[in-house]
């Protein structure tokens, strides 16, 4: 871990579980819980002033229509990593949208390792300077976007979560300064990442 303090938001309706996780993380100076909310609605009221690095969420608090498109709920949390806090059955398809999963039966060490691993990943993506060169993975994602594929298709093709696809897309837009799909398609063609004949 670095000397950076990672700001964590916890979204968990059970006071006992929320308090337990706060106590567990208290002794780790790298982590700071900056807010605890019972549901996403209360969190969204404060999202503009809170800028967490990590969101730990009980997937059960997310209403059914958003479970497969978390980006709609947390789009303003740009480089924020999502961790599912699980203590009941959650469909594997839903868990694919998170960077990792903490099971309530995990040991203290295992929980810390999982959070550290996600925190380290978040640091790498958030510290990349603007206008930096695209990574090989970002170029692959860019080509898929330019070919007109949706996030779900891109995730399946590259064996990554939809949330990871969204993070890559945000990084690509930030580095290129291009937000539209058509603009990214032109960029891919001009930079010889894609042949014009491959575009539908």
Key traits:
200 residues, five-stranded parallel β-sheet, 46% helix, 14% strand, elongated
What does this entry look like structurally?
By secondary structure, this protein is an alpha/beta fold. The protein is built from 9 helices and 5 strands, in the order E-H-E-H-E-H-E-H-E-H-H-H-H-H. The protein has helices at 15-26, 40-46, 70-74, 92-95, 108-126, 136-146, 151-158, 162-176, 181-190; strands at residues 6-11, 31-37, 54-57, 81-86, 100-103. Helix 3 (70-74) links the parallel strand 3 and strand 4 (81-86). The termini are far apart. Residues 124-131 have low confidence and may be disordered.
- Sheet having the most strands: 5 strands, parallel
Radius of gyration: 18 Å
Shape: elongated
> Oligomeric form of this entry?
single chain
Helical stretch tally: 9
Average pLDDT works out at 81
Strand content: 5-15%
| Euclidean distance between termini CA atoms | 45 Å
User: Class by helix and strand content?
Assistant: alpha/beta
Number of strands: 5
- Record the strand order, biggest sheet: 2-1-3-4-5
Order of helices and strands: EHEHEHEHEHHHHH
Poorly predicted sequence stretches spanning 5 or more consecutive residues = 124-131
Name the helicity range.
40-55%
Summarize the model shown.
With 200 residues, this protein is α/β, with parallel strands linked by helices. Helices cover 46% and strands 14% of the residues.
């Amino acid at each position: 871990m670095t000397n950076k303090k990672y700001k964590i938001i916890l979204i968990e309706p059970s006071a006992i579980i929320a308090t337990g996780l706060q106590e567990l993380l208290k002794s780790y100076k790298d982590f700071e819980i900056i807010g605890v909310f019972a549901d996403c609605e209360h969190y969204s009221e404060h999202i503009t002033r809170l800028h967490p690095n990590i969101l730990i969420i009980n997937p059960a608090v997310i209403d059914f229509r958003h479970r497969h498109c978390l980006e709609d709920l947390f789009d303003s949390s740009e480089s924020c990593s999502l961790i599912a806090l699980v203590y009941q059955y959650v469909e594997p398809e839903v868990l694919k949208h998170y960077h990792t999963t903490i099971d309530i039966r995990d040991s203290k060490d295992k929980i810390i390792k999982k959070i550290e691993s996600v925190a380290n990943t978040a640091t790498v993506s958030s510290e990349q300077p603007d206008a930096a060169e695209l990574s090989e993975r970002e170029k692959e994602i860019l080509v898929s976007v330019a070919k007109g594929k949706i996030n779900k298709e891109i995730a399946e093709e590259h064996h990554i979560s939809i949330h990871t696809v969204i993070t890559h897309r945000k990084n690509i837009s930030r580095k290129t300064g291009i937000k539209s799909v058509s603009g990214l398609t032109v960029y891919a063609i001009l930079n010889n990442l894609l042949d014009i004949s491959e575009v539908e």
